[in-house]
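Hi team,

Filling in the usual template for the complex we talked about on Friday. All components are listed, including any nucleic acid strands or ligand strings, so the model treats them as one assembly.

SUBMITTER: L.P.
PURPOSE: interface mapping
COMPONENTS: two
RESIDUES: 847
SEQUENCES:
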Amino acid sequence: MVAAIRTQQLSKRFGATVALQPLDLEVAAGEVVGYLGPNGAGKTTTIRCLLGLARASGGRAELFGVDAQRRPAEAHRRVAYVPGEANLWPGLTGTEALHLLGRVQGQVDERYRDELVERFRFDPSKRVRAYSKGNRQKVLLIAALSSRADLLILDEPTTGLDPLMEQEFREAVADARRRGQAVFLSSHILSEVEALSDRVAIIRAGELVEIGTLAEMRHLSALSVDATFDDVPPDLRRVPGVTAVEVTGNHVRCQVVGSVEPLLGVLAASGVHQLLSREPSLEELFIAHYGDGGPAGAGDGDGHGDGAGAS
Amino acid sequence: MRGTATVVAGRTARRALRSGVVWGLLFGGLAANEALSYTHNFPTLESRTELARTIGTNAGLAAVTGVGHRLDTIEGFVAWRVFGLLVIVGAIWGLLTATRLLRGEEDAGRWELLLAGRTTRRTATGQALVGLGAGFAALWAVTSIALVVAGTRSSVGFTLGASWFYATALVAGAAIFLAVGAVTSQLGTNRRHANGLGAAVLAGSLVVRAVADSADGLGWLRWLSPLGWVENLRPLTGSAPWALVPIAVLVGACVVATLALAERRDVGAGALARPQVPTSGTRLLDSPLGLVVRLERWVLVAWAVGLGALAAVFGVVARTAGTADIGNGSLNETVTRLGGQAGGSAAWLGYEFLYIAPLVAFAAAGQIAAMRHEEAGGHLDNLLARPVSRTQWAAGRLGFGVVLVAATGLACALGGWLGTIGGSNAIPLGRMLQAGANTAAPAVAVLGIGALLYGLVPRIATPVLYAVILWSFVVEVVGSSLTTNRWVLDSSLLSHLTPVPAAPLRWSAVAWLVGLGLLAAAAGVAALARRDVAGE
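RESULT (copied from the run log):
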């Protein structure tokens, strides 16, 4: 089956600045891929090249086998796109904008569109200039989702939506996935990508640094362990695989890479009172890639809050 | 708190001062030039009496320029020659400056930052009014200096007081419409709306003043129009300073109303809210082309009606002037230089239509600006991310531009024709339709050149295009008196035209301009397909 997205050495530079290093990426039909990176990492540049809105400096981008750089209009037949900035013609009403976008798209499931209008609690009777950012975003989300296109390309689509609407959005994407639509979801909100994606690609400074399933990504990172002891804790720093040890009174927090067996042996021998271990969240994966343990990058401020809230 | 408020005053004043000085130089320069060249242009008593006889009895001219008094004297001539026009120009300047610095700043979101602090809207608006006042003072001062200096020359010989009062009357229209613009900036929902409301007031004042000036026995109507009050000041010929009273009262009332309204409304909204739910009409919204029609149809109507009406006024002037066969040396000189026949309504209209052609070109340039605006605002992404090609979108946009230009040219042809009906030397409709085509052809070239600029250098396309039109106009009007260099003269898109209806349409020039437009447009669309679609 032809891939929904396939890029070969796709790259983009603006003058001397390299915005996107040669990128090889494939999204299969029906697959949901999260595209994660801080602001300015090159997520939007990638998407604009994928859609042919920006001219690639090198390489190819295909949507369902059609060259999106050379024949963009044709390549867009099976694709719906939601930009990060919801810019619409201010003089149109919500109803008019939805009608126009549907007609230009060429396919609309009108029943589903009306259902989405209900679910997003969107009032389409006002003019675009009177809408908040979140409401403008809803117009574009409803237009894209109701097209039932085979591929949805979503660039930070939940900007400006409140948590309740974000939940509706997640359900709609899950629904699209069940129907066999592919989704390419760019985000700096880790919990969103974690909840929706089959695979995750991480981009940093214009370069793809990691791609894989959530399981594969976790394997790369550490297990997080919190232990409380009856007495003074043992020195865990010498235990194989243990890193980032923090001691607070009788409490120890550390990370384990690889097998946990050596650590369990030490803990069992030293009177552990309480033990808590958990899988690292995407947030921690993210930090592992960008900050060598410490927070870094302009974009992960948002990621922290949202990631912690949902994990 | 005081600190932030004076920031508004300072910002506004800086921008208003710059504009006031430039326009003051223009006002003062034009008016002073008329005074200084009077004895040269009308050296004999006969020439002055003849001038007074012809102009003084022309109702069509009076409707446009205002009534002249004592036209056989330098005072009467100078007070009439550029006064009516400059008062209108000043009023437009006042309106646009007020809405730009009050409402334009607010629409751009620059006020929200200030008002989020402790500055109240009333304080900020008050300070902005102080800034506008400074701009007006600059306009007044520069105009006054130019006229006082010109007035002291022995060939002119105006008293200091007379010169100064003339300068005051010249800028009175600007004062009134600065104040009107301040009020409409509070009433409208955005700057465009504010401009529209102010323009309605201006148009109303103008029509009432024109009727009062052109019909016998209706002179009292002037008291109903702010522009009529300005005319009633009668500078140089019968100074009536007490006519300043209604002007001062109106300006004061506008300032009070502006401050009161500023306090009561929300930032970014108008006091004239539009509470009713807008009705959604999806009839046109089925394709990119339909969207263009939906977005730009009223722009087309405004240009066609506006320029058609202007052509009709020119037609009326041409009919009366042409029938009386007023000898106007420089006009006939220009018309014959461009290959036309001197004398009669056709010469007048051929000359006036030279001024309409660049206006139609401006309408065309506005469509290129709208294309860039649609891209820069990110609206275009919503089309191009769907199965719409750039070529399809651009072709629809440019096609609409051609329709706009054609409709405007046709409206000018019909307006001019209607204006001349009934005169002793009326112009056949066919000849006027050629005049319409003559004004539309360079606008088609402008559309094409604009498309090329937009495809290659989108960020600077609009200003460069306006510069091309201004250059073309300047070269056409004064080029031949400054240089004989064919390359310079041919670089004007307008200088290839004949002054239709004073001469037959030069079909070859029309074909060249349209062909140039089509070629440039094709190249522009090709360039557009090869570049990034990008915001600001």
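MY TAKE: The two ends of chain B are 33 Å apart (CA to CA). Residues 65 and 84 of chain B are 5 Å apart (CA to CA).

Thanks, L.
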